[in-house]
Amino acid sequence: MRTGPEDRKTPDRYGITRFIHGPSPGLEDGAMPKARPKRAVSKGETDVLAPMASEEADFHDLQYAKRDGVARITLNRPEVYNAYATGTLRELSRAVEDASVDDSVGVIVLTGTGSAAFCTGGDVREYAERYTQRPRDYWKYMGLFQGAVEALLRCGKPTIARLNGITVGGGNELHLACDLSVAASHVYLGQVGVGVGSVACGGATQWLPLAVGDRRARTMLLLNERIPARKALEWGLVSHVAPSVRRGTQLIEEPNPEQVRLAQEGSRDYRIDLTPLDAAVDELSRRLLGMFPECLRYTKQQVNFWKELGWHSTIGHGREWLALHFANREPHEGMTAFVEKRAPDVAGLRRRLAEGKGGEFLYGRPSRRCAQCGAKGLPEDFAFCGRCGSPVDSLRAPEE
């Protein structure tokens, strides 16, 4: 059995120290072997299974690095709290696929840039500006999201979510797709779907009941309650919590909300320190690298049974329903309100329901026609004809 230097030993689950492999001959300590070149398979062909070197990755929304047996994928959109856009999902699938086929990689870590957010889900501005205008395109978008989630599920290697900040919405669904997670102590987790006019059926409705139990899952999904890191650990929503709030030289093990706020503001000598988080993720990675890779791969596949059963029983339906739902008044109001930084007019929508008008159409049923120009299918809420501008009193009664 090969052994490395003393600082490369790691305790296994039984508390016994074992050694993981040291650096390859001819490489400096800590250096990672370069991905093998795309060698010719036959004349005019290249090895399509050959992974890329980290420096070859041409990603716009991600940072991608491979070192010491670990591939780290970092969502890099801090200006929107690491929310993912359509292109981000395609890049995420590519990065996970590359790490999956790279035999020098044994662990995949997914995280976000900075200390404010791991990921806050889909870019709501993009939703409001594109997908409420072209609901049919949301079906295509959901295909990319499904691909990214399934890449994490089926990559054949253990995945660790490094929760460096807010983890909500689709960000929590990406977290749930990972095998293990370490949360910084200032983090909170949650779902936001029913508060912005959507449904968290991209992993949360399927997997939260498995992770935290039915009642707690419903609390998160129906009430959008924020779950602090320590409570998330008690619920089984995260694997570990690492202290991240520091005042001067002192790490605060269980910070209260006020201490978290001061640390995020950098006030009164408080600050966020992610060093313990990185140490915890590194320790998990070292332990995983000390396990047999083929056994890890098959164990992951077996343990995924219930996750995949729930996922594949519902995701196709969810994709179809969400694409139709984006033509509804609910996502239009919820996501527009989010972008405009105001509270959504849920009371107004409920009032319309009580009046029998519903929310299927933005301005009521397309049930009227103009007596002046003959235009048909005018929304029942329109005061004027959209073609000729005739006032509402020239509109005929709703067609039966």
Distinctive features:
about 400 residues; alpha/beta; 2-enoyl-CoA Hydratase, Chain A, domain 1; 2 domains; 6-stranded mixed sheet; 4-stranded mixed sheet; 14 helices; globular; disordered N terminus
Explain this structure to me?
It is a single chain. With 400 residues, this protein is an alpha/beta fold. It folds into 2 domains: 32-325, 2-enoyl-CoA Hydratase, Chain A, domain 1 (Alpha-Beta Complex), CATH 3.90.226.10; 329-394, no CATH class. 39% of the residues lie in helices and 16% in strands. The protein has 14 helices and 17 strands. The protein has helices at residues 86-101, 124-131, 135-153, 170-177, 193-196, 204-212, 214-223, 229-235, 257-265, 275-289, 293-303, 305-325, 329-339, 346-354, and strands spanning 9-11, 17-19, 62-67, 70-75, 107-112, 117-119, 159-163, 166-168, 180-184, 188-190, 227-228, 240-242, 245-247, 250-252, 270-272, 366-368, 378-379. The protein has a 6-stranded mixed β-sheet with strand order 3-4-5-7-9-12, sandwiched between helices. The protein has a 4-stranded mixed β-sheet with strand order 6-8-10-11. The chain has a 3-stranded antiparallel β-sheet with strand order 14-13-15, covered by helices on one side. Helix 1 (86-101) links the parallel strand 4 and strand 5 (107-112). Helix 2 (124-131) crosses helix 13 and helix 4 packs across helix 6.
